[in-house]
User: Fold 3-hydroxyacyl-[acyl-carrier-protein] dehydratase from Ethanoligenens harbinense.
Amino acid sequence: MAVVMDKEAIKAVIPHRDPFLLIDEIVELEPGHHVVAQKHLKEDEYWFKGHFPGMPVQPGVLTLEMLAQAGAVCVLSMPENQGKVAMFAGADKVRWRRPVLPGETLTLEVTVNKFRGPVGFGTAVASVDGKKAVTAEISFAVSEPAGK
Assistant:
C-alpha cells in the first residue's frame, strides 16, 4: 500500500504527539468517509515491557485509541474541520478477537457512517494480515480547540 500521509502529515491534522501519537501512516483516505492507517508495532514500544513482562501483548485499549486517531484524521481532513479537534466520545460493541504481538503491523480501518451535528459515528476494524483483532462502533465530537 502506498503511503498517503506520513507521521509529519498526520501531525498537521491531529494534535497528538509522541509518546501518544499511535499511528504511523495513512494508506487510504477519503476525508469524512473512510480511512486506512497502519501502526508497525516495534518490539521496543514502551507499553510492551509492562504489558506483560515475558509475554508482551498489545493493550486492547491502545488499539482502540489507534482506531480513534485514524478516525480523527479522516474527519479532520474535511475542509470544514481543518484546525478543529476530534474528541473520542464513545465505543460500543467493542470486541477483542485475537492477541496482537510485537513485530506485527496493525491495519486500522474506520468508516464514518453518519454525522449528527458535530457528533460522528463510525465502524472501526483493526486487523493483522487480514485477520480481525478489534472491532468496534466509535463516536466522536468535533469542536474548536480549547481557548478558541
About this structure: The CA atoms of residues 116 and 143 lie 13 Å apart. The mean pLDDT is 96. Residues 5-141 form a domain with the Thiol Ester Dehydrase; Chain A fold (CATH 3.10.129.10). The chain has one domain: 5-141.
